[in-house]
## 1
Amino acid sequence: MKKILVTGGTGYIGSHTVVALREAGFEPIIVDNYANSSGKVLDGLRAILSSDVRNYEVDCTDRAAFRRVFEAESDLAGVIHFAAFKAVGESVQKPLAYFQNNLGSLLVLLELMREFKVNNLVFSSSCTVYGIPDQLPVTEETPTKPASSPYGRTKQMCEDILRDLSQADDNEVKSILLRYFNPIGAHPSAKIGELPLGVPQNLIPFVTQTAAGIREKLTINGDTYDTPDGTNIRDYIHVVDLAKAHVVAVQRLLDGKGDAVETFNVGTGRGNSVLEVVQAFERATGQKLNYVIGPPRTGDVPAIYADVTKATQELGFKTESTLDEALASAWKWQQTLPANA
């Protein structure tokens, strides 16, 4: 059973990927400092997998501590790097923290991978690297324009680091950059799901918490964008589908396929507006939402969704779940949480 190190493995996408890895016959090893997650996620993973997942409470920017993980796990086959701060709005308020953490963690990781001869990396990137695109949908060849937030800039810079590294004479690290669109939903068991600390930064936890009565109302950030109904359009992918894309990417690296650096969009290929998501949630769950229109959020782009032709043709990856199914799973997960979660 090949071991895959998963940084940020108790986070939202990371935890679902841990499950997908184990189900595909890999042994995931978690590294996380719980900066934006909870150790309780390990209980959910244990319930789903009927066994523990080996884990280390380590900050990936702490080279000495992270190095001890590589020493303890000397036969790693690859790494999936999720560990990063990820909220667009927060990054505008705390840019230095985002640059320090997101760039710093990748640099430390790459140094250790090279030292310990771990040569396969799947990197968690984002559609924010496209900035405000001139045309939709975006392909992997769509020019990356200035990012709309410090978070987006960190992802652009991390991609640049990996591309520059691939040109180095002494480089042996191969990487796949997965540009995510908007993950939503939860594991069908409702044992793991999106669990933001404090006020949610993403749409769906706000939706489910409003439906659950935890929040009085959902504030939709702007309705004057250049979109059919004035609200933001995004490509919403079920997190379980997204997790499976990582397994496919890992296997591609282990099979020795592809170039030194490859980039893939991971989405559904469809865009839905915020209002469409609200309507779909009400349809999928039978819950009526109390929502109001608020001001636009700094750093948000009006619309973006993926062309997924490359992932379909070269990775053989295609999403399976509908928007309604993803939203129903998010509501099922919300109902398992305490009222003050």
Note: The CA atoms of residues 7 and 31 lie 5 Å apart.
## 2
Amino acid sequence: MLDKAVIDSREAGSIIQLRDILSNELYPVIKDKRPIVILCIGTDRSTGDSLGPLVGDKLKFLVRDRISLYGNLEYPVHAKNLCDVIKEINLQYSNPYIVAVDACLGSLQNIGKIFVESKPLSPGAAMNKDLPQVGDLSITGIVNISGALEFMVLQNTRLHTVMMLADVISKGIYHCVLKTIGGKRTEYSKHQLENVDI
């Protein structure tokens, strides 16, 4: 069980670091033959909150036998449909292991860092939204500073920071899947690959 790992996305080797942390967490899950769902939360309507959909977009091709993906730029998972998507995941999969990915606001020195924890994340907390906690494992990228006027802060977040985090997170997940499950991909229908637009 992972307590909390912090990775600086600007450092060389951050992708390998993330790959190894995720692999250690996912080995027992894969051994137990539990389905793995990568749930990328956020909206493409706000730069700071687009981390999840960007990660989902970069991982669309990764869907395979044991891996499912929800949330990308075309079909984002956000405050308005999160509850429905969680219901759908629980109906579709038996005892799924959910890896939740989301943007987060934090302290100035943590901007650009990735936090990985064996606990659910609380989407929409910065915006005081009452949404259900989700995820067996959470991956959060610190996109900007927290404090007053969170909505404005998210809207005025640098795309460079978000893209850098999205690159490291998506590549870390990709290399973890190659390491733990392998490269064989099964053919999925368009519906399964892109998820349902709820």
Note: Strands lie at 4-8, 36-40, 67-70, 97-106, 113-117, 137-145.
## 3
Amino acid sequence: MKAIITVVGQDQVGIVATVATKLATLKINIVDISQTLMAHNFTMMLSGEWDATQLSFAAAKTALDQLGQQTGLTIHIQRQELFDAIQKL
């Protein structure tokens, strides 16, 4: 399965490491990543992929929602095909 994950929030030490560690725990491979910091606001977008027989999209979403709550970040995950379709509109 392929997905686009976005992370937004107040800048803090270790955001990339925290998200990457969670993705590694879930066995989600980071294929591409971009991040920026503007006026203390952190934004990251990444493309991830994993074996859908090992981890459902719903389970990945739940885990990332929980991480967002724990860290005070807004984390969204969207299936790659849906993201691509929206970008074509």
Note: The domain at 2-88 is CATH 3.30.70.260 (Alpha-Beta Plaits).
